[in-house]
Amino acid sequence: MTTLQKKLVLSLFLVFVWIGTVQTSAAQCDAYFLKKKSCVAKLDKRVPQLLDSANIPGLSLAMIKKGRVLYTQAYGVKNTETKEKLNLYTIFEAASLSKPVFAYCCMKFVEKGLLDLDKPLYEYWVYEDIKKAQRYENITARMILSHTSGFPNWRNQDSLGITFEPGQRFSYSGEGYIYLQKVLEKISGKELNEIMTEQVFIPLGMKNSSYVWKKEFDDNFALPHDRFGNSSSKYKDWKVMASSSLHTTSQDYAVFITALLNSKGLRKETIQSMLTPQVKLTEKIFPPLTPVSTSLSWALGMGIQDVRGEKSFWHWGDNGNFKCYMEVNETQKMGIVYFANSYNGLSILKELLQETVRGEQPLIDFIGYKNYKSPGNVFVKHIFTLGVEKAIAPFLDVKGKSTIEEDEMNEMGYQLLSIKRIDFAKEVFDLNKQAYPHSSNAYDSYAESCLKNGDFEEAGKNYLKSFELNPQNRKAKHLADQINHYKTQKGNVEFRLQGYPNAKLVTLAGSFNKWDDLNVLFFKEEKEWICKIDLVPGEYQYKIVIDGNWILDPANSITGESNGYTNSVLKVE
Questions:
Q1: Cα separation of 284 and 347, whole Å?
Q2: What pLDDT shows up at residue 486?
Q3: What are the angstrom distances between the C-alpha of 44 and each of 51, 59, 61, 200, 477?
Q4: Which residues contact 268 (CB under 8 A, 6 or more apart)?
């Protein structure tokens, strides 16, 4: 055989091999896309049904299969008023899904030898807010990332403390992540978003992600919606916060998840250490001292679920009227991430996981969000169409009392107050008071709705009852005393507000009462509102609050600045 003939035979052989390879790959591809098509068709039918049932305006979803993005889709609208549809590039608040991405960045610092997970953080940077607290010097990055630092989730007003011995147990804390953020900023000499952009977003190709609002987001973002489906304006002036200020898309976040699955940007052993359980969780996050879970733990930056050898990593996000979730079955390299522009966004979690990740999900009980089919959520959905009396009817016991949990009803009432549906709020709080007649809180909440409706006498009675049930509720006694003795009110400073004949509640908030807008009351006398208060000598800033609207005092032209706000200024000699 000549050299030319040999080359011809070899070429024909390679062609046949190539054809065989193409046929095999095509067959694999067909199977993949057939499965994908079936999965997609099922989701495209099921998700809109869930959104409608749960009163969720919009949802952006991405599915991961075999370590790659299988499918992305946007369902519903950005805004219930304009009906503008979501698309794959619509920006959502990632809320606490910010934390796993930040943790990934921290591990890059660890790989570079810039951060030691077990070195006390004060050795990198002294945190002025907490340095005087006992046990502060024991806190490490590992404790922050695994939520065992002892910090509360968020501080009480201006005071930040440590509630237990660092490293002792799990207690979810956004404050801890802010501390670690400041450490990374100190180490690098850069602000967090710049760090995240350089270390994570650019290397992974997350083109629509930022921990601060970007001008280009203005053209395509989702508005938040309350549990009743009402939209509100999008807050854009977020401070950069490792814990919660990430803005992103489901596509971008899915890219981050696949980086974890495929060891992109970090060594495989680093990611394995990141996903190694550090502390056992309890069966429910609230209350925190429920029995220890046999399947749930927390790693570095995210939760771990291990049910009969099926290991998943997961996290949820809750910024009020934005909710989101991600979960990945590490064993099968499949998972889901979704973002919802609704308070109700996590009420469909169980159903979405059944359609995607599948398997037992004890984490659902741990985070504790009510399913959209729960009595409370069904009641809320029908309040405005049926009215409170008819909407609650299926959920009354034989004595005609509500069977919905006290805290859930209380939360509903305050949400109604926030959208100024005081009439409905009063009815909800009254139902709660009847169902829980020994609850100081139930009377307190009902009293507040009465006060905001202008029913001062009824408010006074119920505040007093709340105080009788709980003598620690000094604020209830303070308000009851003002209402019941307003005709003889005394004080060395008097405020007068002319007009506002239709106002129901006027209050005084200022530096003298920690800007509490439900503390000092005005009372109407003929054509003006009058308030008297005792103040020690000094200078104070304040505002008058009329039915929830904060205004400068029209009778006082002296103003000052505080925390970016212009306020009226009062000098007491």
A1: 16
A2: 86
A3: 11, 12, 11, 31, 55
A4: none
Place of tokens 């000098």: 571
Is 493 among the domain residues?
yes
Residues 21-58 pLDDT 10s? 333 333 333 344 445 666 778 889 999 999 999 999 99
Give per-residue pLDDT as tens, 381-413.
Answer: 999 999 999 999 999 999 999 999 999 999 999
**CATH at residue 524:** 2.60.40.10
Average pLDDT, the chain: 92
**Using 50, 70 and 90 to split pLDDT, how confident is the model at 1?**
low
Query: Domain boundary at 436, 462, 484, which?
Result: 484
Is residue 437 located within the same domain as residue 518? no
Phi, psi of 75 (to 5 degrees): -120, 140
Residue 505 has pLDDT above 80, yes or no: yes
Helix count (H) and strand count (E) of the chain? 17, 19
Name the CA dihedral angle for 389, 426, 433, 456, rounded to a multiple of 10 degrees.
-140
Q: Where are the alpha helices (DSSP H) in 393-473?
A: 406-418, 422-435, 440-452, 456-469
- The number of residues making up the chain comes to 573
For the chain, the C-alpha Rg in angstroms (whole number) is 28
Residues 294 and 365: beta-carbon distance below 8 Å: no
Contact 435, 401 (CB under 8 A): yes
CB 81 within 8 A of CB 231: yes
Q: And the tokens for 88? A: 């794959």
List the structure tokens of 468.
């009788």
